[in-house]
Design a protein that fits this description.
By secondary structure, this protein is of the alpha/beta class. It contains 9 helices and 8 strands. Helix 3 links the parallel strand 3 and strand 4.
Length: 281
Amino acid sequence: MPRLHLHLLSDSTGETLEMIAKAALAQFEEAEVTRHFWPMVRSRQHLDRILPELQANNALVLFTMISPDMRAALEERCRHLGIPAVPVLDRVTQALERQLGQEAAHSRPGRQHIMDRAYFERVDAIQFTIAHDDGVGWDNWEEADIVLAGVSRSSKTPTSIYLANRGFKVANIPLVVESPPPPKLFDLKKPLVVGLTTAPDRLIQIRRHRLAVMGEQTQTDYVDDEKVKAELHYARRLFADHGWPVIDVTRRSIEETAAAIIRLIGERDRQPSTSRVGGAA
């Protein structure tokens, strides 16, 4: 398979474009792709400086540009070079225009990044989540939207941060057999408490890697097969006793786990308030 030079051009931060390209490329596992990222392209002079880089063999341009003049200039140059250029949001925007009966506001680049109320709420959620990682700040967990519980290395922290970037205030707590969680965990009313679990062999593999990174070579209970199974059994019993929804993260990515949690929140919010007890869905 020939190598593809994929050029991502945006007149804003390019965050949306990067996510779209990443999702599409995930469908081509064996493809050899070199990505070239060109954000904040807002002038013809800037575009002209990029042109020599676009002339590599087997190139493809994906772009998001608001300015009609800049779009036309980019498309004209790509035609001249014989390079396909794809405006990745056009079909979605056109479909929205048809359904909403109005034209898109082609006003200025980066419109989706305006610092509105939602932006500051997301920042607040990230700050809250960082301050309530690993069992810290349990006395005000009631302010959280979500509380994640699970044994050590069950993806609690990365899942929390991902959810925070989606605007959810998240706290998480490691479950340790010898050190029961604070009673506050069992009295929560507002947050959705979710248990995270995983397969013992996968957990041991992750923990061994963690110890190796830390330079720890000795065998400990942390990676002992029977001890790990006992930890997971303790956690599952805790989840069952309190009726918390449980997600097995063994074969899930962080994004998939977060999506499942968001779906649980949606399902809970659609239930009558009288049916919600102790954060259970």
